[in-house]
Design goal:
Strand order of the largest sheet: 1-2
Radius of gyration: 28 Å
Order of helices and strands: HEHHEHH
Distance between the termini: 52 Å
Shape: elongated
Helix content: over 70%
Number of strands: 2
Strand content: under 5%
Structural class: mainly alpha
């Protein structure tokens, strides 16, 4: 166990030394950080992403409306079925055929609802990929163009670190998130980046 720890610590130290040596040889390197999570903010984020999700939500609305209607039917039927079961428990005569029919209908509706949930999930994932993939590709190209224009040799995404609450401090001067979003949103619609 101690040997494993020693090996891991040695590897980490070697990695830091390699990074330090690289940094010394590239003293003119200009590094920036960007939080790609901010691209998805409704206010202050990338407009094309917000519009893409608006389009996705509009396309998914009919399926979601159908699902909500089915869920309401299920809830109403479940309430009626539960009342029948409750009455039967108190000794009040209950039409067993009606209770059985309602129970079967509940099972059928539950199966339909489960299938609808899966269909909605699959359709949403498929359409989200179709809508967002070209936008994400264009953002990547624009980020490359932006970085070259500003002279950055390395741009790192701090989004995962923010999500994991691992980012303790960030010098505001190296955070280019807002500036890049402004740059990207200022481009005319349909402009291709080179």
């Amino acid at each position: 166990m101690k040997t494993l720890r020693l090996v891991i610590v040695s590897m980490i130290c070697a990695a830091f030394l390699a990074i330090a040596a690289t940094a010394q040889t590239t003293a003119n390197a200009k590094i920036a950080l960007i939080n790609t999570n901010a691209f998805y903010n409704v206010e202050g984020g990338i407009t094309k992403i917000a519009n893409g999700y608006k389009k996705l939500n509009a396309e998914m609305k009919p399926m979601l409306d159908q699902y909500n209607t089915k869920a309401t039917q299920y809830n109403n039927l479940k309430k009626a079925y539960d009342e029948l079961v409750q009455r039967a428990g108190t000794g009040v005569p209950v039409d067993e055929k009606d209770a059985q029919t309602k129970g079967e209908q509940l099972l059928t509706l539950k199966t339909e609802i489960t299938r609808m949930q899966e269909d909605i999930k699959n359709q949403k994932e498929k359409r989200e990929a179709e809508i967002m993939e070209p936008i994400n590709k264009e953002i990547g190209q624009s980020l490359e163009t932006y970085s070259k224009q500003k002279g950055y040799t390395l741009v790192m995404d701090i989004g995962p670190m923010v999500n994991a609450q691992m980012l303790l401090y960030l010098e505001p001067t190296i955070d280019i998130t807002k500036d890049f979003i402004t740059f990207y949103n200022a481009k005319p619609a349909g402009t291709a980046t080179k």
